[in-house]
Specification:
The protein has 11 helices and 12 strands. By secondary structure, it is an alpha/beta fold. It folds into 3 domains: 43 residues, 434 Repressor (Amino-terminal Domain), CATH 1.10.260; 121 residues, Response regulator (Rossmann fold, 3-Layer(aba) Sandwich), CATH 3.40.50.2300; 128 residues, Rossmann fold (3-Layer(aba) Sandwich). The strands form 2 sheets. The protein has a 6-stranded parallel beta sheet, with helices on both faces. A 6-stranded mixed beta sheet has the order 7-6-8-9-10-12, with helices on both faces. Helix 7 crosses helix 8 and helix 9 crosses helix 10. The chain is elongated, with a radius of gyration of 25 Å. The chain starts with a helix and ends in a 10-residue tail after the last strand.
Length: 328
């Protein structure tokens, strides 16, 4: 740094400000310092800077799968939000969602030197005694029922489901069938519980629940089963990929959507508006979810205090052409 300062004719403090991206340096001076850095082959030593400041400018992300839309889009939003704050992301995948797997991930993140951790759970772990997170590190958890012990960020699963089911009932359907996600998924369980509670509170018949694994193929198989249910006029599907499979099964079986049966999905993926017909679905704001996660861990770092409680990001129904009143 001293060599760069002499070469550029500035102080070492100015070199430091330029290398750290601080504002307030005259542009001509900044360009002269950058030119000197290039000529001398100077590159700031991030490890030395971390030792001096006590910050590594890195957030660790622990997750169990990148196979679901929610996880991928939430991770993308976390990465973008972290970069905007000057932080990098280190991803640690956990093959098996167990206590040992989570603790092993925390250990690896400790070795890689991160300032905070975001855990994308997707499965029922923290809402039981199965897994506890090591203390002493700022943590935010995505999609879990553990707000009494950790800081949790989630989209409003219950309200999104309520809007979807109410939409179908308000159209005049006697009841609503449900294709749920996998049993181990927190989000799938919350949506299924809310679906059932709404029907029961309205005194509506509660049809047998079908279950998929988030994939289009599992939705297709559920759709084939629904074809055998002559009284099925409305279906709430727990994600858009499975809803696509349901639409295919209905098309092949001669059940017209929405003339014979209405279908609502969940997620509002980019392709949902291009389904045939365009899919009515619940929009999840994954961008805001990722932003809230980064905001939460940075706040804990700055205040040096852990947080508890659940932050819900609003969801909303996006009506399209896959829903209509039941056939007369």
């Amino acid at each position: 740094m001293a060599d760069v300062a002499r070469h550029a004719g500035v102080s070492s403090q100015t070199v430091s400000r330029v290398s750290n991206g601080y504002p307030g340096v005259v542009d001509s001076t900044r360009q002269r310092v950058l030119a000197a850095m290039r000529e001398l082959g100077y590159r700031p030593n991030s490890a030395a800077r971390a030792l001096k400041s006590g910050e590594f400018r890195t957030i660790g992300v622990i997750l169990f799968t990148l196979a679901t839309t929610g996880n991928v889009r939430t991770l993308e939003a976390i990465t973008t939000s972290a970069a905007r704050e000057g932080y990098a992301i280190t991803i640690i995948p956990v093959a098996v969602p167990t206590q040992d797997g989570v603790h092993g991930a925390f250990t690896r993140l400790g070795e890689l030197a991160v300032d905070a951790v975001i855990v994308i759970m997707e499965v029922h772990l923290l809402d039981t005694s199965t897994v506890t997170l090591p203390p002493g590190v700022p943590v935010v958890v995505v999609s879990a029922d553990a707000g009494d012990r950790y800081s949790v960020v989630d989209t409003d699963q219950a309200d999104g489901t309520r809007q979807a089911v109410r939409h179908l009932l308000d159209l005049g359907h006697r009841t609503v069938w449900h294709v749920a996600g996998p049993e181990e998924s927190f989000a799938a369980g919350h949506r299924a519980d809310t679906w059932r509670a709404i029907l029961e509170s309205d005194g509506r018949p509660v049809p047998p629940m079908l279950r998929g694994d988030w994939s289009t193929e599992s939705g297709y198989q559920a759709g084939l089963q629904l074809l055998r249910e002559s009284g099925c006029t409305a279906v709430f599907v727990a994600n858009d990929q499975m809803a696509l499979g349901v639409l295919r099964a209905f098309h092949e079986g001669g059940r017209r959507v929405p003339h014979d049966v209405s279908v609502v999905g969940f997620d509002d993926i980019a392709e949902a508006s291009s389904f045939i017909p365009p899919l009515t679905t619940v929009h999840q704001d994954f961008t805001e979810t990722g932003h809230r996660c980064v905001e939460g861990v940075l706040r804990q770092m700055r205040t040096d205090a852990p947080e508890r409680g659940t932050t819900l990001v609003p969801t909303w129904l996006v009506p399209r052409a896959s829903t209509a009143p039941p056939p007369a």
